[in-house]
Amino acid sequence: METIQVQPSGSANAPLPPEQPGLGGLIAPFILLIAIFYFLMYRPQKKRMDEHRSMLDSIQKGDAVVTSGGIIGKVVKIEDNKLELEVSPGVRVYAVKNMVNEKITDKALAKLPQAESAPKKATKKKAA
Known about the structure:
Blueprint: H1 23-57, E1 64-67, E2 72-78, E3 82-88, E4 91-96, E5 100-104, H2 106-111
Antiparallel strand pairs: 1-2, 1-5, 2-3, 3-4
């Protein structure tokens, strides 16, 4: 008896199905994205927050500061979470301590325009 071998048509030359990536191939891009997020976003933001916190802790009476609203003033009084700022001679405002953006150095403070004194009233001369 003769043995006949039957092969399905075209199966000998057909390409194999693509191999599925392993678990390591799926985790590596995810870990790479987490590392990029950490080094480009989280770490710099944390550094800025730490610098801001240390600047807030170093504010003392007599320092000139700029608030997030753009108010420039000299610290007159420090309470728990608020500051009393003198923005002009005799004009004082309260600000939340966390809203201070920066401390102004003496050099930068010297460059700011100084408040002018109150305008003088015009005096009338009497005709003689």
